[in-house]
Amino acid sequence: MTKYDVIIIGAGVAGLYASMNIPEDKKVLIINKRETFKCNTFYAQGGVALARDENDIPLHVKDTLGAGDGLCDTKAVDVLSKNSRKAIDDLIRHGFHFDTNEAGELLYTKEAAHSCERILHAGGDATGRYLHHFLLEQNSHAMLSDARVVDLLIKEGECFGVTVLDHRQRRNIYAKNVIIASGGVGSLYEYHTNAPCISADMQGLCVMKGIELDRMEMLQFHPTVFVNSNNAQKMLLTEALRGEGATIEDEAGRRFLFDYDERGELASRDIVSKAIYKYKKKTGMHVYLNCENFEEEYFKHRFPNIYKSLQELGFHVPSQRVPISPAFHYAIGGIRTDLNARVPNVKNLYAVGEVASTRVHGANRLASNSLLEGLVFAKRAVDDILKDIDESKYFQEFTLTEEVMSFKDDKVKKDQLRRIMWENVSIIRTKSGLNDALSTINALLNENIGKLLKFRLLTAKEIVISALNRSESIGVHTIQEEN
């Protein structure tokens, strides 16, 4: 029987920061579904928000609560903000370098719905990539890559480990504690900004295990995404562009966002996404991101990856505007946890990062609070584990059951699910559209499908049911009256 002190499912910011905080004398295994870079952290262009000092905590809290539209857990937001400086200082102490000004001081920037400059970046628009690389370098524990978790070993309200599918072979791996840090639900949607392997497996598995998912209807769509590509994963154009002067306009050059909110481009993501969606539907016009307010040298230095990628695609930024549209970006809801990242009613099971619902984001996540949430709550999970790790834990042994993971025609059904989620469960929803989606999902669940597809369908079903159960529009959840 292979036994660990801690198994961490996922190798993004939350999983790797949890690993970094576990002493080397503890036996830890990180399970990573694909190559290490295929995670949402790697693709994160935005920075890390934080309360700059004690005086900024109330303002950061206020901004987070404001974006959350009244549905944030105020205790969770307090935990996030009060521990933000500590998390950043810890990264710096370990050797991570955020961008600085000419005097060597931390360079703070502003993004939509923030009341001041409080966002740190690294590598300009490559914060996630830099942070992910750094955390991988810091990792001293074992990692199992190209393996996916297909079961949680739970008995009588206690988690004893996981079942993994490793090179098409299933085996049980046992642990005193399990941390789920597997990310969001991007691959449920036809158009998204997520890593391709972010497919809502663990959320669906939790449904199968009777573990509560929370606020699954709260799904954030990023307003500025380059859409002229053939891949499901679309190129995100960071919030920081608008925060520093880029504008959104129609074919005629009109900045129409002010028709919907007095803040224009600096309104929160949900407002901008809905405004673009409604305006395109109303006028039939294309929408563009205009970056002409930037000097080219500054743009190249501040947003090097965006500059390079768009130039390679034939767009001469910042002088030439870029076609944009919203796409799915971030799952606000997830596995319900407490303030120490514990999953209620299942001993020794934790969830951190995008896969979790701490209720810190409410009905809409404030820009750049996501990497921060992963850092803060990963540390709290580890602190909780280390203060009471059971050195003499008795392990139940679990028998592997015969299960078909996938069938040949599951791919066609996955694509059908992506289309129905994009068409009926996206930026603007109707009850009839949601009910149509639910009928399709139920029909697919009744077909002969593999377990991996079942995970996706069960997660999608929870999203639809949650959306139907919330009859009022709030935050990123918008129910439109039927015509």
Give a summary of the structure in a few sentences.
Helix content is about 35%, strand content about 20%. It has about 475 residues and is α/β, with parallel strands linked by helices.
Task: Give an overview in words.
The protein is built from 15 helices and 18 strands. It has 483 residues and is of the alpha/beta class. Helix 10 (296-302) packs across helix 11 (304-312), helix 13 (410-424) runs antiparallel to helix 14 and helix 14 (431-445) packs antiparallel against helix 15 (451-469). It is globular, with a radius of gyration of 22 Å. The model has no long low-confidence stretch (mean pLDDT 94).
Q: What percent of the residues sit in helical stretches (DSSP H or I)?
A: 25-40%
Q: What radius of gyration results from the CA coordinates?
A: 22 Å
- Total of helices: 15
Distance between the termini: 60 Å
Main β-sheet: number of strands, strand sense, barrel status?
A: 7 strands, mixed
User: So what's the overall shape?
Assistant: globular
Class from helix and strand fractions? alpha/beta
Parts with pLDDT < 50 across at least 5 consecutive residues: none
Strand content is: 15-25%
User: How many strands in all?
Assistant: 18
Please give the structural blueprint.
Layout: E1 3-9, H1 13-20, E2 28-31, H2 40-43, E3 48-49, H3 57-67, H4 74-82, H5 84-93, E4 108-109, E5 119-120, H6 127-138, E6 142-144, E7 147-155, E8 158-166, E9 169-180, H7 201-208, E10 213-214, E11 219-226, E12 235-236, H8 239-243, E13 247-250, H9 269-283, E14 287-290, H10 296-302, H11 304-312, E15 322-331, E16 334-336, E17 349-351, E18 356-357, H12 369-387, H13 410-424, H14 431-445, H15 451-469
Parallel strand pairs: 1-2, 1-9, 2-6, 9-17, 16-18
Antiparallel strand pairs: 3-5, 4-5, 7-8, 8-9, 10-16, 11-12, 11-15, 13-14, 14-15
Helix pairs in contact: 1-6, 1-12, 3-4, 7-15, 10-11, 13-14, 13-15, 14-15
